[in-house]
Amino acid sequence: MKNFSQFLSENLQEGNEIKPKPDFSKYQFWGLYFSASWCPPCRQFTGMLKNFYDEIRKSKTFEIVLVTHDENERDFMKYYQKMPWLAIPWSEKMSISYLTRICKPQTIPHLCIFDQDGNYVTCGARDDIAMYGMKAWNHWEDIAEERRKYRQK
């Protein structure tokens, strides 16, 4: 598969601003976070993910992009205000639908991780963070290395 970041919108939301999509190759890992304000497990995991995000970014290059499953823009904005990462803008419904179709989250919250080349690493990152905490990063490095070796065969 080609670089997965190509499937993102050309513009992403950062706080209240819409900005051009960053160069995802500058991040060792980046994630797509499928979540919604109406989902109690999502609200619970968002706090855990925010703590992970804030701590890991002190020493690693990492970014997250929210892919909302909220039913209206007001709920999306109220929920997103609590998050320090990027988001697919509410107006980009086609992009949200497309990312959901290709990542196929069975439930939310759902977190998929990609490496700096845009290669898939894991869609089990929610469980990784819940089980390993900060050591989830090491787990992703191991997975990414194994996948890299496999691609080189």
UniProtKB/TrEMBL annotation:
<dbReference type="InterPro" id="IPR013766">
    <property type="entry name" value="Thioredoxin_domain"/>
</dbReference>
<keyword id="KW-0677">Repeat</keyword>
<dbReference type="Pfam" id="PF13905">
    <property type="entry name" value="Thioredoxin_8"/>
</dbReference>
<feature type="domain" description="Thioredoxin">
    <location>
        <begin position="1"/>
        <end position="149"/>
    </location>
</feature>
<comment type="similarity">
    <text>Belongs to the nucleoredoxin family.</text>
</comment>
<keyword id="KW-0560">Oxidoreductase</keyword>
<dbReference type="GO" id="GO:0047134">
    <property type="term" value="F:protein-disulfide reductase [NAD(P)H] activity"/>
</dbReference>
<dbReference type="InterPro" id="IPR012336">
    <property type="entry name" value="Thioredoxin-like_fold"/>
</dbReference>
<dbReference type="InterPro" id="IPR052259">
    <property type="entry name" value="Nucleoredoxin-like"/>
</dbReference>
<keyword id="KW-0520">NAD</keyword>
<protein>
    <recommendedName>
        <fullName>protein-disulfide reductase</fullName>
        <ecNumber>1.8.1.8</ecNumber>
    </recommendedName>
</protein>
